[in-house]
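Technical annex, item 7. During the second reporting period the consortium partners agreed on a shared format for inverse folding records so that results from different sites could be compared directly. Each record opens with the tokenized structure and is followed by the designed sequence. A conforming record, contributed by the partner at site C, is shown below for reference.
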């Protein structure tokens, strides 16, 4: 039986998952690949740290060159995360002619262009299924299953932490901070959880989904990103009363042949919307393509074993490529590495969009304040569909919840800015968009 040797960079949660799958499913893998996949070295920061998995003597090393320069190692699996050391190591691996598998969405979203180009130059694969929606094989579905179709729109829940937090707040009435702590304790959050709740992690994943769906690179700063930090349990409770749930969605759409629109922000979904049923840290990606119509990919978007499966399946793909090359077959390079130029993205991602909105204004409980808010909305052409008012227990201020009719982004933003300029406004206004009607 032939053997393909791999080197793993990082032995955290996902690294331990990969090693476990390689060990526990070894026979299945051998049958499917017709080769043994052998972990030769694993790079760790500290040899004495406690780990999720036991490793044989001599496997671990703190010397990166012992992994990256080992001529026997054909595949490097990058699982250290971050964008600095990871980038250097992936570049070194490619320069040494090694194929790379990574689950590092930040690395590819920020430096994908040069890394894919380098991979193409040296004729190596750079695979990244684990970077988007953890264990859900959504990139494979788009790349292979939908290869003959034209994707028009992607709409997904791709950050498990944000979904877990919103879901806990909605279903268990937890406060925001308590729900975030629980997500961290459950191991879903990034090392810096602000990447999760701030929407940046989802933007990284959306850029990668767009790359494979539309064949276009997207600059991260052309994605509109709004996190869930300002959403309160009160807003979720009101939304529930109205028949809606709030989810943080990552949405990419083809606006014209060559123009894309990408955004990440919380959205109010009708209770019976297919994405409203995605609970906890689960992820789901709803794809709309010309011929197939809607298809949805659902499952665990984070964690040791789910992401471990995605990474290990990529390793198997690379192993098959290596064996086919040895057998003299020609393999078409991975399509991600043949990526076309930067997409033209619509002017500002929110330009020309129209939504109905949930707006919660926190104002002093004094006479005339409701009139002032309503006058400002009217002056900006924002029509009120529903309104309610209440007072937090023991507080001297009032909460005005306003549901607007469909209005332009510009009108809504201008109205909120003017409302917030008033001295009677005591806390930041919460504004959440309703899903557009065609969805
Ligand atoms: N922090 C990420 C999430 C983990 O919460 O979805 C997987 O990328």
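Designed sequence (site C submission):
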């Amino acid at each position: 039986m032939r053997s393909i040797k791999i080197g793993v960079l990082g032995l955290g949660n996902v690294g331990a998952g990969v090693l476990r799958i390689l060990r526990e499913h070894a026979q299945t893998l051998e049958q499917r690949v017709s080769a043994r996949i052998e972990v030769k070295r694993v790079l760790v920061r500290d040899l004495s740290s406690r780990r999720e998995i036991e490793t044989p003597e001599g496997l671990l090393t703190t010397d990166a060159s012992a992994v990256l320069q080992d001529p026997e190692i054909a595949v490097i699996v990058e699982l250290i995360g971050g964008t600095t050391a990871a980038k250097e190591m992936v570049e070194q691996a490619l320069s040494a002619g090694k194929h790379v598998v990574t689950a590092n969405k930040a690395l590819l979203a920020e430096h994908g262009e040069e890394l894919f180009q380098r991979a193409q130059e040296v004729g190596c694969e750079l695979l990244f299924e684990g970077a988007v929606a953890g264990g859900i094989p959504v990139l494979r579905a788009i790349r292979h299953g939908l290869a003959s179709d034209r994707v028009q729109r992607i709409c997904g829940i791709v950050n498990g932490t944000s979904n877990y937090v919103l879901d806990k707040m909605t279903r268990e009435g937890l406060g925001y901070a308590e729900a975030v702590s629980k997500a961290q304790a459950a191991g879903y959050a990034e090392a810096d959880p602000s990447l999760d709740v701030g929407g940046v992690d989802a933007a990284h994943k959306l850029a990668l989904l767009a790359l494979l769906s539309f064949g276009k690179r997207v600059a991260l700063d052309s994605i509109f990103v709004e996190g869930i930090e300002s959403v309160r349990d009160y807003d979720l409770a009101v939304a529930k009363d109205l028949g809606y749930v709030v989810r943080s969605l990552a949405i990419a759409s083809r606006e014209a042949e060559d123009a894309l629109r990408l955004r990440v922000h919380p959205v109010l979904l009708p209770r019976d919307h297919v994405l409203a049923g995605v609970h906890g840290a689960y992820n789901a990606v709803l794809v709309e393509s010309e011929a197939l119509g809607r298809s949805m990919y659902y499952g665990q978007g984070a964690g040791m074993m789910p992401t471990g499966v995605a990474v290990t399946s990529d390793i198997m793909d690379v192993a098959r490529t290596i064996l086919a090359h040895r057998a003299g077959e020609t393999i078409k390079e991975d399509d991600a590495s043949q990526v076309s130029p930067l997409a033209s993205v619509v002017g500002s991602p929110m330009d020309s969009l129209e939504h109905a909105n949930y707006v919660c204004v926190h104002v002093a409980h004094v006479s005339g304040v409701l009139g002032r808010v309503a006058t400002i909305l009217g002056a900006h052409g924002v029509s009120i569909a529903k309104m309610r008012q209440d007072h937090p227990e023991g507080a001297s201020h009032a909460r005005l919840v306003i549901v607007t009719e469909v209005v332009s982004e510009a009108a809504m933003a201008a109205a909120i800015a003017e409302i917030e300029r008033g001295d009677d406004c005591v806390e930041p206004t919460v504004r959440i968009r309703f899903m557009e009607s065609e969805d």
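The two ends are 52 Å apart (CA to CA). The chain has a mean pLDDT of 92. All partners now use this format for quarterly exchanges.
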